[in-house]
Design a protein that fits this description.
The chain has 826 residues and is mainly alpha-helical. It is built from 35 helices and 11 strands. It has a 7-stranded mixed beta sheet. Strands 3-6 form a two-stranded antiparallel ribbon. Strands 4-5 form a two-stranded antiparallel ribbon. The termini are far apart.
Length: 826
């Protein structure tokens, strides 16, 4: 045998008339070790480029490079680190059919996709992705990177649609993988391939059109759809490992699943839901794997490697992006990343505060916020929603019947799965328990917003319905629905075959075809949820943001209170560039230190007359010569959480004088009242900007203005209450309303020439999420107040027009009774 240095590769082409082909044919085979090292080198370079660009403040190259490195190159390195076969298992898994199913689900989501942002967290996350910022704790840095990359892709006309497509694509990919899992569960139960594929597709579609899955997949309201596809991929890798855990490359599947779990945690904590199920699977299939120190160590290192995405948070936070919740850095001047303030105990403390979600102050698990039975009842309520979302409880019997039907289908499928393939059942069953019962216990929710309405406010409630926390449970249920459908189909087909003649071989499929209508039961959610899950054409959140921002004069300070009157404004300003001259102050977030630091740092943007309503474009607008808050960062950090008041306090700002407490402040009746941190900052804003910047309270702001003794200085103008710099004088078009004043002229101008949300709401058929109905209610209340004032001054035609639109909005939003109460009160 020739020594290695003289060995010649066997020609691939022995005879050819073309010399270049001969040279190609005689090349030695590629060295796989060299290729793997090249891949590792490419991965390292991509990481260096990504982090270097992020450190210098880049918003394009850095996020794209890090997305590619974390989501593509590292998994590829793991996958090809060792040569060899994966061993046995479904080598003929229907990947092509899974792709078709996933594409079909994606088309459904695309047809029903939201054209813009939505209520709750959608605006926050779209804006955070666009600005490469930090959304609410724990900050979801992986989503921010991927979301920014999608926001840059020319796949849709707007940033919002591109990020919404990320949600749709994620859920559609998860559906394709659940199809593979369902087909695998049916492999030994159903030998007829066509039947198996149809049943798997039907169950997958049922899971994909479950209300919460569908509704969350057509707008990027949170990060849960991206988490869903991560859980699905990890599940498939673990099931493939279980097929032949002794294969040469089988260990790589565990390492890759571990990496994706750590990476997924950087998107949302739910990625760890696969860990208990994975442990059960390994214990059931090959328990001695736990004793292999090398394998366990590789899995731990891989998982830790995925978690390194969190390193992007202190880097970006140091630049003071517009969305910077928690601000996990000690570099708080907004000038950029520096080691001297990043590698400090303060940065670590703030990062850990964010990572551990301490802002929400959840109690220990032993201290239940509601009885565990009630918390399980919440899961069951949301399970019923999946098959028929009935927001007004108009069809409870049908909803209950459908829920029992799909519960029974899933349980039948689980039983059949258990008998047919206990190995995969060990994982799927454990994951089903983890994403339902164990998750219910861990989340420890208060009563759901829509749960047990007969208890009213006698029990503590979540501010909104939390069905999205169980999206993994309801999506996974489609796997067992598929098995249940196949089981019933098989039973009916067998019964039909036994009643008929033996027939010819060519007609052996006749009973299966005749029994095939049972499959259509899995299509019911597609029909029952179409009108409630679809977000097609819904622009209300964006319209509301435009309307509220355009309610105020140039360079105004606008004080809000909650998610739905704040996040859409952030989106409108940072993504669409609407009224960036307005300083949005959330009085709830002012009780944190990071929001105040953001307000102190925020520069004042120029008023853009070309994009402002004509109403304000004609006004004299001088750029303020000082920041809205004239305090230092250190002074802001020193403001205590509350200030005790033992007696009334007088606040003065120019010609404005207000008396605070004690009867109007928190703690009244308990002997000592107090000002919250947010109250102190709002008073400072008024003092610093008296007669210099217009100050407004959104009418959604929870009555803070009146609690601070400002009622006599407030003038209602559409959606906002303006703080008058002195006592309000009686003049034409101003009405005294209770403890405030109403500006008829400005309110009329806003309603007729600025606000566009009213017609958009009137064109909708319903407002499904009743927890956020206060936003359309604002249109109803504003219209009712304006119509009453117009009638009072004799403007009957104007009053009729205003009331007509208000009635259309109330009818569409199911607020007719509330409108009648408002009209009667006035």
């Amino acid at each position: 045998m020739a020594p290695p240095s003289t060995r010649v590769a066997r020609p691939l082409v022995t005879k050819t008339s073309h010399p270049s082909v001969s040279r190609i044919a005689e090349r030695p085979p590629s060295d796989p070790v060299r290729l793997r090292l090249a891949l590792v080198g490419l991965t390292i370079v991509t990481f260096l480029v990504g982090y270097a660009d992020l450190v210098r403040g880049g918003l394009t190259l850095g996020p794209i490079a890090l997305t590619v490195a974390y989501c593509a190159l590292v998994p590829t390195c793991i996958w090809y680190w060792r040569r060899g076969s994966l061993g046995g298992g479904p080598s003929t898994a229907p990947y092509r059919e899974a792709g078709v199913v996933g594409l079909g689900v994606l088309l459904l989501y695309a047809v029903t996709l939201s054209p813009t942002t939505a209520m709750w967290d959608a605006s926050e996350y779209i804006a955070a992705a666009h600005t490469v910022g930090t959304p609410h704790p724990p900050g979801n840095p992986l989503f921010v990177l991927i979301g920014r990359s999608f926001a840059l892709l020319p796949i849709a006309p707007t940033v919002a649609q591109r990020v919404n497509l990320l949600a749709a694509l994620s859920s559609a990919a998860a559906a394709a993988i659940w199809f593979l899992v369902a087909d695998r569960a049916l492999a030994t139960l159903m030998p007829i391939r066509a039947v198996r594929l149809v049943a798997a597709a039907a169950g997958t579609l049922a899971g994909a059109t479950a209300f919460t899955v569908w509704n969350q997949s057509v707008v990027n309201e949170k990060v849960y759809t991206l988490s869903l596809v991560g859980i699905a991929i990890s599940s498939w890798l673990l099931l493939r490992w279980a097929d032949d855990p002794s294969a040469r490359r089988a260990d790589l599947l565990l390492v890759l699943a571990s990496y994706l779990t750590g990476l997924g945690y950087a998107n949302q904590m739910s990625a760890f839901l696969v860990v208990p199920a994975g442990i059960v699977l390994v214990a059931a299939v090959r328990p001695r794997s736990f004793l292999r120190a090398g394998l366990v160590g590789a899995c731990v290192v891989a998982m830790a490697g995925g978690l390194t995405v969190f390193a992007t948070q202190p880097i970006r936070a140091a630049f003071g992006p517009a969305i910077n919740e928690g601000e996990p850095t000690a570099c708080t001047d907004g000038k950029g990343f520096r080691l001297d303030c990043t590698l400090t105990e303060t940065t670590w403390r703030r990062f850990k505060y964010n990572f551990d979600r301490e802002q929400y102050a959840k109690p220990p698990l032993a201290q239940r916020q509601a009885p565990f039975s009630a918390q399980l009842g919440m899961w069951w309520l949301y399970f019923k929603w999946q098959w028929l979302r009935d927001p007004h409880v108009e069809r409870p019997a049908l909803q209950h019947a459908l829920a029992l039907t799909f519960l029974g289908l899933g349980l039948l499928g689980a039983a059949a799965h258990f008998r047919a393939d206990r190995r995969s059942f060990a994982y799927v069953g454990s994951l089903a328990v983890t994403t339902s019962i164990l998750l219910v216990y861990y989340m420890n929710f208060e009563y759901g917003h829509s749960q047990a309405p007969e208890l009213g406010e006698a029990v503590p409630r979540e501010v909104r319905d939390r069905d999205y926390f169980f999206i993994w449970s309801y999506s996974l249920w489609g796997v067992w629905i598929a098995v249940g459908v196949a089981r019933i189909w098989s039973t009916v087909a067998t019964a039909l075959a036994s009643r008929g003649s033996s027939g010819s071989a060519g007609r052996a499929s006749a009973p299966w075809v005749a029994a095939s209508p049972v499959v259509f039961i899995a299509l019911l959610p597609l029909v029952t949820n179409w009108s409630t899950a679809s977000r097609r054409g819904q622009t209300d959140a964006r319209d509301f943001a435009h309307d509220l921002l355009n309610s105020v004069e140039p360079y105004a300070i606008l004080i809000t209170a909650g998610d739905n009157d704040t996040f859409p404004l952030w989106y409108a300003q940072e993504v669409e560039g609407v009224r960036r001259d307005v300083l949005v102050v959330n009085n709830t977030l002012l009780n944190t230190d990071w929001h105040l630091r953001h307000l102190i740092r925020r520069r004042t943007f120029a008023f853009d007359r070309t994009r402002a309503p004509r109403l304000f474009a004609r006004l004299e607008a001088r750029h303020p010569d000082a920041p809205a808050l004239t305090m230092s960062l250190a002074e802001g950090d020193s403001i205590p959480p509350y200030v005790l008041l033992d007696q009334p306090m007088t606040f003065r700002a120019g010609a404005l004088t207000a008396t605070l407490g004690p009867e109007s402040l928190p703690g009244a009746g308990e002997g000592r009242t107090f000002l919250e941190r947010s109250d102190v900052v709002v008073l400072r804003l008024i003092a610093d900007n008296w007669n210099r910047r217009p100050i407004y309270f959104s009418r959604t702001a929870g009555g803070q203005s009146r609690r601070l003794g400002l009622a006599g200085y407030l003038v209602t103008q559409g959606f906002v209450d303006r703080v008058n710099p002195g006592p309000v004088a009686t003049q034409a078009g101003r009405f005294r309303t209770g403890d405030g004043w109403y500006d008829l002229e400005r309110s009329t101008q806003l309603w007729t020439t600025v606000y566009r949300g009213g017609p958009a709401l009137a064109a909708r058929r319903d407002w499904v999420d009743r927890a956020s109905v206060n936003i359309p209610y604002l249109y109803v209340a504003t219209g009712a107040q304006l119509a009453t004032a117009q009638h009072a001054v004799g403007d009957e035609p104007g009053g009729r027009r205003t009331l007509a639109l208000t009635r259309r909005v109330a009818r569409a939003m199911r607020l007719e009774r509330e409108l009648e109460d408002l009209v009667a009160m006035r």
